[in-house]
Design goal:
two-stranded parallel ribbon; four-stranded antiparallel β-sheet
């Protein structure tokens, strides 16, 4: 199994966990714990509760790289998932990326957008999906393996809960975050797709 998980432990341009600030934060969140569940929960709770969700707060800065998310303390769900992956990987916990296709409207119609979250590999539970986008009224994501409690449930006919666990974020996510760097432009160009495997 270890060889299959190596891709979920790598550093990259976006998941830049070798950055000094990421390493320092990961070490602080680990504390004296040797339990991967406790460390993962600590990382998850920090990103969920202390990194602002760009859409909720209408922050002007659009972040992408994990180190930038930490530096500016804000990010869309995708960017927050980048930081959570970086913090977990820095602590030796395999972390991947998952997506849902969700409606932006209450009635479940167009427009749709991708929503980013994570899957973490925990020794006693295997892959466990978590959503650190940030809680608010009507959104209550928790960390309590093996029970999965995500921010959103797929309910409309064109919404999709993709089951793939990717070792790197989708390229369309990276392109969107790096191309549209104001809140207004970013909001207008949130990425969407109906097939993960074709990207």
């Amino acid at each position: 199994m270890k060889s299959n998980l190596e891709g979920y432990l790598q550093s990259s341009f976006v998941i830049d966990f070798e950055h000094p600030t990421i390493l320092a934060k990961a070490k602080a969140l680990k504390g004296n714990s040797n339990s991967d569940v406790e460390i993962a929960k600590s990382c998850f709770t920090f990103v969920r509760d202390h990194i602002r969700h760009t859409g909720d707060h209408k922050d002007a800065i659009i972040t992408c790289k994990a180190s930038d998310v930490l530096a500016y303390q804000t990010g869309w769900c995708y960017a927050k998932s980048h930081l959570l992956a970086a913090l977990c990987r820095a602590n030796g916990i395999p972390a991947g990326f998952c997506y849902q296709r969700l409606s932006l409207l209450e009635n479940g119609g167009e427009p749709y957008t991708l929503h980013g979250l994570n899957a973490l590999y925990l020794k006693d539970f295997g892959w466990y999906r978590v959503d650190a986008r940030g809680n608010k009224k009507g959104v209550n994501a928790e960390f309590s393996p093996p029970l999965e409690q995500l921010a959103f449930r797929v309910k409309a006919s064109h919404e999709i809960d993709f089951q793939e666990i990717l070792s790197e974020p989708l390229s369309i996510i990276i392109t969107a975050l790096q191309t549209y760097t104001s809140f207004e432009e970013s909001l207008k160009h949130l990425p969407d797709c109906t097939e993960i495997t074709l990207l």
